[in-house]
Amino acid sequence: MHYRELGRSGLSVSEIGYGAWGIGASGWVGATEDESVRALHRAIDRGVNFIDTARGYGESERIVGRVVRERADDQVYVATKVPPKNRVWPAPGGLDPAVTFPGTHIRDSLESSLRVSGLDHFDVVQFHVWSDEWVGRGDWLETIAELKQQGKIRLFGVSINDHQPDNALALVRSGVVDTVQVIYNIFDQAPADTLLPACQEHGVGVIVRVALDEGGLTGRITAGTTFPDSDFRSRYFRDDRPAQVEHHVNAITTELGIAPDAIAETALRYVLSAPAVSTVIPGMRTVRNVERNTAVSDGHPLTSDQLTLLARHRWQRNFYA
Fold first, then answer.
1. Which residue of 6, 26, 123, 173 sits 20 to 30 Å from the alpha carbon of 62, by its own alpha carbon?
2. Rounded to 5 degrees, what angle do the CA atoms 255, 280, 140 make?
3. DSSP 215-255
4. Cα 10 to chain centroid, rounded
């Protein structure tokens, strides 16, 4: 496993982290706790030392906390998220931060996360939505500073709204945020335009989510693919979207001359080719996926020719809508 600096924080994190939404039985269908626990332990065995969870991920915080406590001799950093008080994802414009992240709500959410996880602190606490309209407004910043002083959190971050990377530029440039979490993948290359350079300039760590496009960049989504109604992917990949994804993935694999089942590895290597990226957090609900994804951290980046080719496959769209 290779490691990178998490911005200016002084923390060295595994470039392959662990995205723990899928293990919480909240939105994703098919995870079992026994296999999730085995996958988490195997990830730590393989050198993963950064796990991302959230208050809104069902049982995820509890499962993550259990494993981290069982691995007390290993240095594992855990990030969680505070949901907006109004429970609206993503954050629309025009909201006052007193509606989304008042100080009392931040504290209450964090205390719930600590209690459920059994941990005594979190290394990163992130707001689960963000709007740059909130910079310099509300009492959230004072609350974050107090929580840091009390030792309940080490770093503060935000999870940027889906496909809105520029909606955190003012925050990054303000100097008050330690990390940002953003969608960045072969299809959504927009963060590389402005956000990633700004994060490098200001020493902000970058946590990349959805590197595999919720499964679209695994080669396993094809025309006719369906999911149970209770799985959020039944909405994400609704109508003719699986056929669209298959068409775009086939174009990439054909140009690169790779097999369809090699696209996931290529997608992770694409993200890691950006020097501003600190860690990428694919969901890994099984030991098999842990083995496959952590193997990508081998110090072999994509070539400049491959990156040039992939730049032509930018596909801006919002399947969350």
1. 6
2. 135
3. GGGGT---TT----TTSTHHHHT-TTHHHHHHHHHHHHHHH
4. 20
pLDDT at residue 203 tops 80: yes
The counts of H helices and E strands in the chain are: 12, 10
Please return the burial class of 150, using the count of CB atoms within 10 Å of its CB with bins 0-12, 13-18 and 19+: exposed
Give Cα 87 distance to the centre of its chain: 19
- Write out pLDDT tens, residues 272-294: 999 999 999 999 999 999 999 99
Q: Which helix (H) or strand (E) holds 80?
A: strand 77-82
Mean of the pLDDT values across residues 1-21? Answer: 98
**Structure token pair of residue 263:** 């696209």
Burial 33-65, CB ≥16 within 10 A → b, else e:
eeebbebbbbbbebebbbbbbbbbbbbbbbbbb
Cβ contacts of 289 within 8 Å, gap of 6 or more: 39, 282, 283
In the block, tokens 């952590």 appear at 294
Backbone angles phi and psi of 157, in degrees to 5: -145, 175
Strand order in the sheet with 18-19: 18-19, 50-52, 77-82, 122-127, 153-159, 179-183, 205-209, 279-280
Supply the pLDDT for residue 27.
76
Contact 271, 208 (CB under 8 A): yes
Q: What percent of the chain has pLDDT over 70?
A: 100
